[in-house]
Amino acid sequence: ELKVEQNPLFLSMQEGKNYTIYCNYSTTSDRLYWYRQDPGKSLESLFVLLSNGAVKQEGRLMASLDTKARLSTLHITAAVHDLSATYFCAVDIQGAQKLVFGQGTRLTINP
Amino acid sequence: ETGVTQTPRHLVMGMTNKKSLKCEQHLGHNAMYWYKQSAKKPLELMFVYNFKEQTENNSVPSRFSPECPNSSHLFLHLHTLQPEDSALYLCASSQESGGFNEQFFGPGTRLTVL
After folding, report:
1. Do B103 and A90 touch (CB under 8 A)?
2. How far is the C-alpha of A1 from the C-alpha of A26, rounded, in Å?
3. What is the pLDDT along chain A (111 residues), one digit of tens a residue?
């Protein structure tokens, strides 16, 4: 059974700082997704990573995938308050049209 | 309408009521999903439909009954629910293409069972 684990689960940081959220998964996959969820809202797709070494960047967020280590990272650069949200990674189960989600990382950025 | 829509957005029901949640996707996708999200647990996959056929049922209690009349519409029929069923119910759709399966989510239905 595929397991996806994120850490940390809760992160409180100050504006202007850098930090990284980690997503580990337990079985072979080369497709990983990052989503953002604001309180009371739905999930918004952020990044799609489809191969080993894939790196995507959007604004202050950068995601990468290392399929050999079964690890993805979401790096936040010079955080701003607007990035406060819960971030989920999800791993694609090959051959089955479904994703397995991590527990989510609740990120709070303080002024 | 664009993307994935869900109605109602909020629902309060008693344990003896019967209600239905509706999801519609306007993306031409071939797969649709129901998820449950509660405060105590991460996102839980409930059901998967692929070309209207149910391909996944994650040991969901029978008081939840899905229906997928076509590739664009998905329903979740609810009856004799329990208070612990109160949660945000999210619908998603996807189209497997080129080996990836990005899912697009609706806004969710916030369900409260009294």
Report:
1. yes
2. 8
3. 789 999 999 999 999 999 999 999 998 888 899 999 998 889 999 999 988 889 999 999 999 999 999 999 999 999 999 999 999 999 987 777 788 999 999 999 998
